[in-house]
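can u do me a favor
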């Protein structure tokens, strides 16, 4: 007989406790009764190389890779910022846009430098999140969501992380870094993708 708790557990392919906390908040607000845990021994496993050219390939590749390390449903996400006027950059390189280990401030600084002189629709951008869920090497779901906005000339707000301070969200008239956590989870690309994942798993 399958353990009920085990069958309602999702394992995040990450060693990032902060990311787990964010997903747990989303899960608790969904009313779906899923338990979320970090993948056991994740930090002791050889790291998956996220070198694919698309968010979907990176998320799915990571989920498949780590799903073979244990039972249960393993999920992984890949997300980033896309600016069409920059040819889609930073894109899948969002976290490494200003070089390995660069701070959020340096990544934002490079983005604003590259966008210097761009106006109007050329400042449009969107965040993308793709989540892949796999069980024992078999795909369960691949979900993709995005949220549209525009890039400001300078940062605003102190919440969030990454490019949030310069990502302006017109429906609320604020940057993602000015939103409360509950507001951001309701409208963000990651929040939308994860809620959709839980619906699919039901």
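np, heres the sequence
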């Amino acid at each position: 007989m399958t353990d009920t708790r085990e069958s309602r557990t999702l394992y995040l392919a990450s060693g990032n406790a902060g990311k787990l906390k964010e997903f747990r908040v989303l899960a608790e607000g969904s009313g779906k009764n899923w338990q979320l845990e970090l993948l056991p021994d994740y930090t002791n496993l050889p790291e998956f190389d996220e070198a694919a050219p698309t968010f979907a390939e990176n998320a799915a590749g990571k989920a498949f890779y780590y799903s073979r390390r244990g039972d249960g449903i393993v999920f992984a996400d890949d997300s980033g910022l896309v600016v069409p006027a920059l040819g889609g950059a930073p894109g899948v390189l969002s976290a490494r846009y200003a070089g390995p280990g660069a701070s959020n401030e340096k990544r934002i600084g490079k983005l604003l430098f590259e966008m210097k002189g761009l106006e109007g629709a050329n400042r449009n951008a969107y965040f993308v999140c793709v989540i892949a869920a796999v069980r024992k090497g078999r795909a369960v779901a691949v979900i993709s969501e995005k949220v549209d906005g525009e890039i400001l000339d300078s940062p605003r707000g102190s919440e969030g992380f990454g490019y949030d301070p310069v990502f302006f969200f017109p429906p609320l008239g604020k940057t993602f870094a000015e939103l409360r956590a509950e507001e951001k989870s309701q409208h963000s690309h990651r929040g939308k993708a994860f809620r959709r994942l839980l619906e699919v798993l039901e």
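The beta strands are 9-12, 35-38, 73-82, 124-135, 138-151, 167-169, 174-175. hope that helps!!
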